[in-house]
Predict the 3D structure of the following.
Amino acid sequence: MPYKCAIVGVSGGRANGHAAAYIHIPRGNLACIATRNRENLDAFGERWSVGCRYTDYREMFEREKPDLVHVNTPPDVRLDVMQAAEAAGVGALIFEKPLAIQAEDYLAILEFSRRSRLKVAINHQLHFHPRRQRLQELVGAGAIGELRFIDAGARMNMAYQGTHVLQSIAAFHPQGVPSAVFAQVSGTDGLQESPRKHYAPDATAAAIRYEDGVSALLRCGTNGAFVLAGDERVNVHKQLTVYGAEGHVHWSMWGWETLVRGRRERGEHNYPDEDILGQAAMTEAAFDWLQDDSRLHPLNLDAALRDFHIVLKAYMSALHREEETLASDLQPGLINALRQELAG
């Protein structure tokens, strides 16, 4: 019997990516969908042949009891969805990033996670891209020697893609324990009121220190990843380079390079082809977790909370103009504080 799967929020483009991936997901069936706009709901249902449709996700949870739900909602309702899913007995949720926007949201979700058995993961499908997987395995096997430095960036702001970047860093340094962040931010366009509520400065640069001596540089927004010639779309420019004592690996959404034991190799890949396979593998990993509690999803909620903690500390560092340790208390009202500081 395939797992019964659902999507909440089908009015945006991301839901199409989730639905398309089911052609590569033999253990799951996209059985039901929910979104508030009836016209969008029916259009999506017709496109993907999903007849079970709801305008209220809570009603869908209660009636359909899905095993797995992909959630594409504004970040300010993440906790509401988690609570409704837990109450209805839903098996697992995969949320679109970001997990939260500021400290109050983060702390409420953290408290929920400490008492809930609901399985929650974040949709950082890049982790499962076939090329990324091979590079992660290469670094994990010690091919570039002892890890020294990671340089990573994206062209969208911290709310849209900052946790994508942080998850990418963590994927290549999974045992790393971050200890401190020193950051700078600029620009207020991304802090303006918007329907998506993805509030963040236009540019962020953050130097992250780890307990084992490894360091990372995160650049996100207008100062982020390089733009490939002929493609100005901000969402398709993410990059990461991992430096070791004996070589390096480089990944972008369109290409890769390795320098291992003096031998340099490079190539290209097609992001859409990689992405649909990444989405499928990410979903299959959720089924593994549903089947066996010990098979923890690598994009689980605890990992996402650790990454978002770094985001918050980067904002605090920029506001206070000093390095912030990960052990210190979080500051409330960070988004408003950034608006006031950067507008002044």
